[in-house]
Amino acid sequence: MTGQKWKWLFVIMMSLSLALTFPIPSFAIENSECLDCHGDPDMVKELPNGKTISLYVNPKKFKASVHGQNDIACTDCHSDITELNYDKEVPHPVPVAFVNCTDCHDEEGTAYEESVHAAARAKGVKKAPICYNCHDYHYTKYLYGDTVVQLENKFCLRCHHPEKYHKWLPQKKTHFEYVMCAVCHAPNVGKHIHLRLYDLMSEKFLSGQEILNKLGLTYDTFMKRFDTNKDGVLDISEFHRFVRALRVEKVRAIFWGEMTDNLEPLVHKVTKGRAIKNCKTCHSIKSPFFDKVYLVLTKPTGQAPHYPVKRGVLQSFYVTHFYALDATRVRLLDIIGLLIVLGGVAFAGGHLTLRILTIPLRRRRREGR
Questions:
Q1: Of 36-40, 202-206, 242-246, 325-329, where does mean pLDDT reach its minimum?
Q2: Ranges assigned E (strand) in the chain
Q3: Is 136 within 8 Å of 68 (Cβ atoms)?
């Protein structure tokens, strides 16, 4: 018996030791518990000045957001809420602590701290934006499938009025429609060209799923069908094959081209006074901004797989809605123009030569001989 007692005592001591070393975690608060209250459209909070603010979180919109798609819990951001006490009128601490996005998005936070927005904030400009002002609170979406105009409306144009500035910039409207603001105002970020299909009849962009359904393909099989040389990039002939396949399916849309930044953390480092203002940076046949070209097939989630395309495609007649003077010169038109010039020179030269050679003949004719 004595041996048995010591054995059980040893087991109990070991169990206590393990319990202290590896404490039993408390049950996590489920998002559904938060939405039991915050999913009510009528939930509001009255402010000291008598105004009210909505505390409603749309469950469907949150589920479709980046955080919702990645199963981020409410308490992953609102980390000061560790338990819910329903014996109280409000079952969690009030007010809730400030959510620090950089706990997860540290690279974005570092870039932001070096931006003109952070500098303005440090000087006391209360309207200078922080994360929430651009990305909303609960409905942050993937931005890869957005157009330049959509991105500008979501971000820059909320505060800025570019028409009041950029007096030096020719064709401002064209630049604002096809070039993302950060291309010039975040000069250290990588650039690339988006190509997407725009239907002139319906006046809307065709989604990637619409295009793939027409072709009987998926996002995974698209390149297998058209990248015949298996180099991972669509060259001009392969791109033409893609266009022909669309025509067979009676898809007669144009390719809409845009210049945009890579959506990487550094894009948050928006600068002032160091923006690109040299036209030759883009408008040059050697501009590196056109080295990366992608066909974009958007998803309903906001994601958009990018399929690499050779730069030469921009110099084909298929890209009819995007032209950067000198940088995307259409070679066929160059050849036609050169032939016209040479033809004109040859005609003039031939005519002059003929006139010179026939001088004696015309002189004898005038003399009546």
A1: 325-329
A2: 44-46, 52-54, 191-199, 204-205, 254-261, 293-296, 306-309
A3: no
At 85-106, the pLDDT tens digits run 988 889 998 889 989 999 999 9
CB atoms within 10 A of CB 347: 10
* Pairwise CA distance, residues 32 & 71, whole Å: 12
HSE (side-chain half, CA atoms, 13 Å) at 43: 13
- Nearest Cα neighbor of 37 from 91, 99, 98 is 91
| Separation between Cα atoms, residue 94 and residue 65, nearest integer Å | 26
Check: CB of residue 222 under 8 Å from CB of residue 245: no
Locus of tokens 């993937």: 142
**137/4 Cα distance (integer angstroms):** 60
Cα(180)–Cα(149) distance, rounded to whole angstroms? 8
Per domain, the residue ranges of the chain are 31-99, 142-329, 334-366
Q: What is the dihedral of CA 198, 201, 202, 206, to 10 degrees?
A: -30
Question: 245: Cβ–Cβ under 8 A, 6 or more apart, which residues?
Answer: 215, 225, 226
Q: What are phi and psi of 197, to 5 degrees?
A: -90, 130
Tokens, residue 63:
């589920």
The angle formed by the CA atoms of residues 170, 172 and 176, to the nearest 5 degrees, is: 140
